[in-house]
What we know:
Strand 2 and strand 3 (41-46) form a beta hairpin. It contains 4 helices and 9 strands; from the N terminus they run αβββαβββββααβ. 34% of the residues lie in helices and 19% in strands.
Amino acid sequence: MVDPVVIQRVQSYASSANVIINASPRAFGDDGAIWDTSRRTILKAFYREANFVHELECYQRLSLSAIRKIREFDVPELINYDNSRWIIEIGFVSPPYILDFGKAYLADPKFPDHVVQEWNERMEFWWGDEVKRVRLALFALRQYGIWYYDAKPGNVMLEHWNPKLDD
């Protein structure tokens, strides 16, 4: 269930931006919720300011460099944002894509080797023989100062792909 305060912020943004949103969110998770809009964009409303700030900074870095694709993966276009409501409006993407930068790092987090190893094993489990494609894209993000360690099914999607999920 989405926090009523978040719903109020989304409705307020939609009114001020003169855009119509669906009554219910398309999806919601640990960081926030997303709504489809009448102008074929997505509104992403965040529960926490820190996640909003990180995700916005990532989209701004990519936007400043006119990046809409990281290797073969589409990245949503930053359409608009609202600092006071913690809302980002982005364009739609189709697989293959990378999205959801709320937990990205804006500098190298310098994780211990065992943490990186565990993360690599999880990626191999999810993407199998396709993991190299994902790793190359995530590595390419670093040239924009984005360390993306939230790669998981749904956030990084390959075309015609049926991900393995945890038991």
